[in-house]
Design brief:
Elements lengths: L12 H7 L5 E5 L6 H15 L4 E7 L2 H19 L6 E4 L4 E4 L7 E7 L13 E5 L6 H10 L7 E5 L7 H10 L7
Parallel strand pairs: 1-7, 2-5, 2-6, 6-7
Antiparallel strand pairs: 3-4, 4-5
């Protein structure tokens, strides 16, 4: 019997439309408690489940503490709801990783890290990424993360509250709203 994909919460229409936009880079600016984090947790798990076996996925926030709660905490909670006995996933606390291994075979790994030191981000290859509180992350950290998405041509979702108009996330969102989805 083939293992069924994780049963995840249904996204409301606006969440689904934003997260599953066909563009590679999607900026989602919304107020607190609008469902950005849980929506991105659902999106990232789906990316991992449906992606290439052996691939890695990233969740980055402006600090490691912010990345662990709510980032890792949200993804872990969804996996616990799907498989409370942890037969098909593992949490590596020290490495800040969650691994899906349906049917006993390694499938994908979710990595959680802070954007404090951009140089520490270079190196790995990620198939998709979430940048939580992106407007508070250093722009250099985004450039480092972007380089890790190159091999797979991976998509990224940038979430956060509006934090002025003089940050790279806001400017990226303005550029995105002014272009045709087919151009990105």
């Amino acid at each position: 019997m083939e293992l069924q994909p994780p049963k995840l919460p249904e996204l409301y229409p606006e969440q689904f439309e934003a997260l599953y936009d066909p563009r590679r880079w999607v900026v989602i600016e919304a107020s607190t408690k609008a469902g950005k984090t849980i929506g991105c947790a659902v999106w990232l798990i789906n990316q991992g489940w449906n992606g290439q076996s052996g691939a890695s996925y990233a969740w980055m926030s402006y600090t490691i503490e912010r990345c662990l709660d709510p980032g890792l905490k949200s993804v872990k909670s969804l996996l616990e709801s799907w498989d409370p006995d942890r037969r098909h996933w593992t949490h590596h606390i020290a490495k800040r990783e969650l691994e899906l291994h349906p049917g006993g075979r390694p499938h994908c790994v979710f990595h959680f890290f802070g954007a404090e030191e951009p140089d520490s981000i270079y190196g790995p290859e990620y198939a998709a990424a979430v940048v939580d509180e992106a407007s508070r992350c250093k722009e250099e950290s985004w450039h480092a993360l972007r380089s890790t998405l190159t091999t797979y041509g991976g998509p990224a979702r940038f979430i956060g509250n509006v934090k002025g108009r003089n940050n790279w996330m806001y400017k990226m969102g303005v550029r995105g709203r002014s272009c045709d989805p087919a151009d990105s």
